[in-house]
Amino acid sequence: MNYKDLYSKKLKTAEEAVKVIQSGMWIDYGFCADHPVALDQALANRMEQESDLKNLNFRGGVSLWVPAVTQVTDAKERINWNSWHTTGGERKIVGAGYGYYDIMRYSELPRYYRENIKHIDVLMVQVTPMDKHGYFNMGVTSSHIAAAIEIADTVILEVNENMPVCMGGHETNIHINQVDIIVEGGNPPIGELKSGIATDVDKAVARYIVDEIPNGACLQLGIGGMPNAVGELIAESDLKDLGVHTEMYVDSFIDMSLAGKITGKCKAHNKGKQVFTFAAGTKKLYDYIDGNPEIMAAPVDYVNDIRIISELDNFMSINNAIEVDLYGQVVSETVGTRHISGSGGQQDFVLGAYLSKGGKSFICCSSTIQGKDGSLKSRLRPFVTPGGIVTCTRTNIHYLVTEYGIENLKGTSTWQRAEKIIGLAHPDFRDELIKEAEGLGIWCPHNKR
Q1: Whole-angstrom distance, CA of residue 352 vs CA of residue 275
Q2: Which positions are annotated as active-site residues?
Q3: Which of 17, 74, 289, 331 has its CA 20 to 30 A from that of 238?
């Protein structure tokens, strides 16, 4: 049987495909931009028609739109949405009482599936059209999808002609023999994630970081205004021969690439390739990576492996924080007990970058945040807000950066660290933080004020 015939035999409508789902099942939606669209809507429609279809458990993460199944009648009583990393829409589901965070260290996620989760009833993800060899490309998300396929009873692919083809790595394709059902969706545009416009504070933080980056460095950037500002400054700088090895591929890398700053010629692994495990951005990004031989997708247990990261000289890891306490504990997931995002690969890159020859890990944040009442609140605090989750421990933090400066916290005692961190705080909060440090016993009488 040729692949076209096999394709025809497995082809169904979205409505037909979701009939395999029964109450009590676990359904995996993959990750980020490969979440299903037509299948999700078809299942939501079925749930509206069949009130006895319930107790459904979903897994996803970094959702770029609100899944239809989370908006059905009585969703709170009928489903659980479990996210590996929450976005704004998912936070609302968590707040509504039927969304939950799946705790993870991102580099371990494929192993979680293979060794701990072990079983999925149905996996549904978006992919590219099949090629002549019978393969569907996973597009912008490699991550843990290959591992999920291995443990799924039923694999349903939703073909989207707009999904970019991402080349070069391993575990980036699905053969038709691994697939149970194929659905041809409506070919919607790939979901976008905009970085936002960099503020003056973002730009100030970025300047401190860019000054620390040497020619030939290898970069990992997160999402948000600050990493975006770093990318903009690099694109305008005299830096050259930079490499990319990043968990998430974002628009900033396109700006640097088009400016000729990225060649990857100094990389010990995948020389000349920009490596990532999932991508999310604007159409500019998706157009750039589509069929581009310079771009390499790979599973997260490779991309985020600290052993691989550590072998890339001058590795620069740049990540955001929500708050940092005077001990150097980094909170990047919650505000108190309110869940915001997730741990992602921050720990992977913090550890890997520090082990790299010449490597540096930067945790960056604005010194303040505006409260709902309009008042300024310090992000640098005497101790973590009660209920807050520490993402990067005090032993692992390397450089801390705010708009007031940059400090290397490695090798410091508690009083030295408190002094450095307070020096990065907004001036209006420094005296208050000194008093708190005195009360905590981490401020020496001869410390500078």
Answers
A1: 15
A2: 247
A3: 289
